Amino acid sequence: MKDIVVLGIETSCDETAASVVKNGREVLSNVVNSQINIHEKFGGVVPEIASRKHIEVISQVVHEALYVADMTFSDVDVISCTYGPGLVRGFACWG
Question: Are 21 and 65 in contact, with CB atoms under 8 Å apart?
Answer without folding.
Answer: no
